[in-house]
Amino acid sequence: MQNIWYHMEVGVRLVGILLRFLNFILTPLFWLKSHKRTCVPPVTEPMLFKGAADLAREIRNGEITSTQVVTMYIKRIKEVNPYLNAVVEDRYRAALYEARACDVQIKEAMRLGTIEDLVKNKPLLGVPFTVKESCSLGGLSNSVGCLENAGRKATADGAAVALVRDAGAIPLLVSNTPELCLGWETTNLLTGTTNNPYWLSKTPGGSSGGEAALLASAASPFSVSSDIAGSIRVPAAFCGVYGHKPTPGIIPIEGHIPTLSDEQFPKFLTVGPMARKAEDLPLLLNVMAGENRHVLNLDEPVNIEDIEVFYMTEAMDSIALIKVDKCIQDAVLEAVQYLSRCGATVSEEKFKGLEDSVEISISVFFSMKDIPNMLQDPADPKREKNLFLEILKCPIGGASRSLQGLSFALIEKTRLFIPKSKTDFYKDKADKLRTEITRRLGARGVLLYPAHGGAAHAHGGVFPRASGVLYTMPFNILGLPAAVAPLALRRDLRRALPVCLQIIAAPNQDRLCLAVAKQLEMGFGGWRPPQ
Question: N or C end of the chain: smaller count of CB under 10 Å?
């Protein structure tokens, strides 16, 4: 009995109970705040419905020009961004110049009969894309939402961005994030709050919320983003697009802001693609992986009949986590039934260790050294501001960070009352859980799992619903690849928002995630535009 109580984090459970209570009493207030639904203008140009692979093929075949595509996307961005507030800084003029140069290059290659040689190493030739600000696009803003970094520019492209540009793609802009990507709602005091294109008074999630909002609005064909605790997958789920957190160590992360010196950081942070079409993900992952692409064998065909599907509609029995909405649970079950009809084998085995997601994720994540101190005084780095005083100053606009950033600092300071002495214990639990999931999934298994406790919530709802991110964060800690796929757009009295799920595989089995995402796109329709 004493051993049981030693391993039960009472503080975590008390926080979980408190969040459930706050969610219960605040839900009516958030409903009043956001019940009136408005969304971005509808998509009227058919070309904007095409994915990156289709655009690349039509450009190199001479069916359309890169200039036409880039011009069209710039027009759409200008149309929707006043509603979204997703763009931090653009490079439209430079992008158009590069598009015209690309068209000249393609025309000359077609005349000489060398077009195949030209596109061999440039599979994205002429296709525009957008970049999460933290991933670094040379010459554009690199402040990552921090007031003290206002005006700072990236001196070079991040490593993954450089690979995408080498493949012929043309960057249009950098998009909004929370301060230093440390938050699950895209808001900061420098560039403000980004809105969900399906329901403007709700959040697109974070930290890649700017990218997800643009993609879902058909204002970008694909994105270079990053994920350290659900930062690709939560926004993808809230905005109904595809996002993939790859196996760590495959895609280079050099140039990402922030970067930590801790040896665990490259295992937790991954740079990855987001897109509106599932078929684009293998292409983008191959490009972004560079010399490491051979590790993933993405070109090897996957037969759905060979797949074994595991599934969980929630993280077992954990009072520290909010209940998963019925629409999400139903989506997981519907996906399992569909894949079964497609010939996949369904397993009823569950991973009970995921009920400790909160303790494992918080304890292991916050054991990293050099995590940015959100309370550090920019004017005097040796001085630390008072957390609770800063929180009190938020309502009157006197704080140095957004409430989102200060909430991260609160979690870091308290670690949800998990003693530091328990770090090794939870690292050991993480290792055992990783071994169990990796062994059981093997080279043919995937786990279908919620990407969050619910669909997109109102701005500010991230605080009482914070534990929802513990459906994505554990897989950063465990180093497993995970994709998000949209299944439906619910149209009832409560929401007209995307409903998505998460697809997890064993390390280096990313192709299974992508194959299942594509199969689900065939069965459920994939991305649906806001309207």
Answer: N
Residue 217 known to be catalytic: no
- Asked if residue 258 has a cis previous peptide bond (ω within 30° of 0), the answer is yes
Cα–Cα distance, 72 to 488 (Å, whole number): 27
Token look-up 């994505």 returns: 472
Q: What was the pLDDT predicted at 15?
A: 79
The domain in which residue 360 lies consists of 38-292+302-524
Name the residue type at position 233: R
Active site residue: 34, 141, 217, 231, which one? Answer: 231
Domain count, the chain: 1
* Residue from 136, 143, 175, 207 carrying the catalytic annotation: 207
DSSP string of 273-292, one letter each residue: EEESSTTHHHHHHHHHHGGG
Domain-embedded: residue 103 = yes
Sign of the CA dihedral with 74 first, then 79, 80, and 82 last: positive
Q: Which residues of the chain have pLDDT under 50?
A: 1-7, 492-494
Q: Which residues of 77-115 are buried (b: 16+ CB within 10 A; e: fewer)?
A: bebbbebbbbbbbbbbeebbebbeebbebbeebeeeeeb
> Is 17 among the domain residues?
no
207 is catalytic: yes
User: Could you tell me if residue 16 is inside a domain?
Assistant: no
The Cα 273–Cα 471 span in angstroms is: 20
| CA–CA dist 188, 135 (Å, integer) | 17
pLDDT of residue 491: 54
> Known catalytic residue: 120?
no
Instruction: Find the length of the chain.
Output: 531
Contact 148, 105 (CB under 8 A): no
Query: Which helix (H) or strand (E) element contains residue 75?
Result: helix 66-84
Q: What is the pTM of this model?
A: 0.95
Q: Looking at 50, 132, 202, 518, which residue is catalytic?
A: 132
The enclosing domain of 132 has a CATH number of 3.90.1300.10
Structural domain contains residue 21: no
The Cα-based distances of 232 to 259, 350, 369, 499 in angstroms read 17, 25, 23, 15
